[in-house]
Amino acid sequence: CGHDGHTTILLGAARALAEFSKTHPLPAPVMFVFQPAEEGGGGGLRMVQDGCLDGSIAPWKVTKMFGLHGWPDVRQGMVGSRSGPLLAAADRFEITIEGKGAHAAQPFKSIDPVTTAAAIVTAMQTIVSRNVDPLEAAVVSVTTIHAGSAFNVIPAEAKITGTSRSLDPEVRILLEKRIGEVSQQIALAHGCTATVEYERGYPVTRNHPEAVETFMNLAQTELGEESVYEVDRPFMGAEDFSYYGEVVPACFFLLGLLPPDESSMPLLHASDFDFNDSAIEIGIRMFTRIALEA
């Protein structure tokens, strides 16, 4: 996903500011947050809980925070952001369906969790289309189904996992409620039982308007107006930078990775994704400018 590139950018900005501070005092203290476990581990939350923002680790409190993510859909040399929601809240669910196993030649002696799982997956596709206002953003995706170990045996259990995404707290509550209801009631209709474990993940990455305005102004000064754009709508991916934005005014922005001579590049989380090292300079320049003038 490019975290090696992000870390390199932060190290580069730290080095640039360290050199600058040898001859010019920094106008304000600067903290660099090298956090672990962004991909599913919630490292941002752990950093907040450990006191990286409230002055209990560093000798000052953080008053503004900025972060970036490389973006393959954006041309190299460009940066962009938006006020309000930029990335979605991300939750995960696991549904365990209990039935009764039997020989595959005698399905009438089973209570089949596989057909039940199939019905649940199909029914869950109506949660967004029939329960969520079409003007609201929501995603329910089933990503794994596991059951059985032999071609001629109907198993006693099946498991479904997946993720839900939302931008609005009420929609988030609705998705959790309906995933549980649909799974359990469909299972009951098929004679099975369903146990639903729903885990709240990252909150919405919500950019503070003043922090975004600061970023936009400084980006235009550093890179030129033609290299700065306003992101027109949120993305349904998630980011644990969101935890910082719940504590201090924050701006998360996108750093263009698409090489100038290419029409496309592998997307984030693709097996062949490779961070475009030529974009590192832009990231360092932006972080340095923000640290000196924000």
List the SSEs and their pairings:
Blueprint: H1 3-21, H2 43-50, E1 65-75, E2 79-81, E3 84-87, E4 89-98, E5 102-103, H3 113-131, E6 138-147, E7 153-154, E8 157-166, H4 169-189, E9 193-199, E10 205-207, H5 209-223, E11 228-230, H6 242-245, E12 250-258, H7 280-293
Parallel strand pairs: 1-12, 2-11
Antiparallel strand pairs: 2-12, 3-10, 4-8, 4-9, 5-7, 6-8
Helix pairs in contact: 1-7, 3-4, 5-7
Q: Give the SSE order as H and E letters.
A: HHEEEEEHEEEHEEHEHEH
Give me the count of strands.
Answer: 12
Tally of alpha and pi helices = 7
Main β sheet profile: 4 strands, mixed
| Poorly predicted tracts of residues | none
Condensed summary:
The chain is α+β, with helices and mostly antiparallel strands and 294 residues long. Helix content is 34%, strand content 25%.
Provide an overview of this structure.
- The two termini are 28 Å apart.
- Helices cover 34% and strands 25% of the residues.
- The protein is of the alpha+beta class.
- It contains 7 helices and 12 strands.
- It has helices at 3-21, 43-50, 113-131, 169-189, 209-223, 242-245, 280-293; strands at 65-75, 79-81, 84-87, 89-98, 102-103, 138-147, 153-154, 157-166, 193-199, 205-207, 228-230, 250-258.
- It is elongated.
